[in-house]
Amino acid sequence: MSELVEHVDEQDRVLGIVERSEAERQHWPHRIATTICRDQAGRILVLQRSETHSRFPGYYDVMVGGAVDVGESYVEAAARELSEELGVRVPVRFMFKFLCREGISPVWFGVHEAVVTEPLIPDPGEIAWQGWLTESELCEIVDQRLFVPGGRKALRRYLESGRGSGAGELGAE
Predict the structure, then answer these.
(1) CB 120 within 8 Å of CB 129
(2) How far apart are CA 133 and CA 149, in angstroms?
């Protein structure tokens, strides 16, 4: 199944519609909507991708998300991905976006935040393990474990934005 995405430029303006695999092969920027989830105690959800995941199998991440469909907003895609990957329907709040050149190809990450109060039902094809960590626990492992590069970068920006209290503990990008 081919997945169509919007090929975008350095300012996140749409240039055309392409297959995601082609965007990755050609290193064309496209859009990814992600969400950093917190529980009611303020802990952050950490995931380990399944070993069969097509991108970064077995890596850890703090972002739940995926490609933004053609014509879809970052917020719509983030909510859809939460439902598909974690089986939860909760409001997402847009936090920031940034162009990430690390990883498979350049992508614009639209980063959201959600507070999850219902039980998670993770998609086993996407997620092998999940757990809730405090910011200090997460800061201890983020550079020691195999993390998705964009997830590590997004976490730092998220904490430095003032949302989190452990920003200084993460070090430089």
Answers:
(1) no
(2) 19
Token pair of 71 as six digits = 């014509």
Indicate the pairing of strand 127-133 with strand 44-49.
antiparallel
pTM to 2 decimal places: 0.89
CA distance 155 to 157: 5
60, exposed or middle or buried, with CB in 10 Å at 0-12, 13-18, 19+? buried
Cβ atoms of 91 and 13 closer than 8 Å: no
Return the half-sphere exposure (C-beta side, CA atoms, 13 A cut-off) of residue 87.
10
Q: Report d(CA 23, CA 103) in Å as an integer.
A: 13
- Per the prediction, the chain carries an average pLDDT of 90
Is the CB of residue 138 less than 8 Å from the CB of residue 62?
Answer: yes
pLDDT of residue 166: 37
DSSP assignment of 45-64 equals: EEEEE-TT-SSSTT-EESEE
> pLDDT per residue over 84-128, tens digit each?
999 999 999 999 999 999 888 899 999 999 999 999 999 999 999
pLDDT of residue 105: 87
